[in-house]
Amino acid sequence: MVSGSCTDEVTLNVSAARLWKGAVCEPHILYPKLLPNFFSKAERIGEGVGAVNVFYFAPASNMPLGSFNKNKIVVLDEATYTFKNTATEGGLVGVLLKSLDYESVFVPSGADSCIAKIKMEYETLGDKDLSEEELKPIRDGSIGVLKAVEGYLLANPDVYA
């Protein structure tokens, strides 16, 4: 097993508060709506820290049919726009990874913009680190969902205003 991590930053043209509400508070509602070719459905079990988001992958996602990902919320701090979850089952856990922790912090950079700072920490199942080729879809997916939420919020300025 090898431990690794990666970080990304992306500037988004919506406020940290609006992005927080869509991407953190209601991903189980928005992600299937905004990315139906990737998520067929989603649900949240429970509320707040300890709640579990379950995302079911659509056939077009290139994930195994019937595949899903369960993520347990471990940090939910609206004051600092900090969110962290741990993948507990499904997705790449049990396939390539023993564990995967995801953290995002939305840093306000203007009235209608923010910088999303994303950090992923993982442990592989095997004795080698993930290659850049293996990391790319994970990183691109994390940024892609935030960009989809940004697009939706730009097109719908009254949502989460």
**Neighbour order of strands in the largest sheet:** 1-7-6-5-4-3-2
Q: Structural class of the secondary elements? A: alpha+beta
Residues in β-strands, percent: 35-45%
Shape: globular
Distance between the termini: 45 Å
- The amount of helix comes to 25-40%
Number of DSSP strand runs: 7
What are the low-pLDDT stretches, counting only 5+ consecutive residues below 50?
none
- What is the alpha-carbon Rg in Å? 15 Å
- Following the backbone from N to C, one meets helices and strands in this order, namely EHHEEEEEEH
Q: In DSSP terms, counting alpha (H) and pi (I) runs of 4 or more, how many helices?
A: 3
Largest sheet: 7 strands, antiparallel
Mean pLDDT: 94
Describe the structure.
With 161 residues, the chain is an alpha+beta fold. It is built from three helices and seven strands. Helix 1 crosses helix 2 and helix 1 (16-25) crosses helix 3 (132-155). The longest helix has 24 residues, at 132-155. The mean pLDDT is 94.
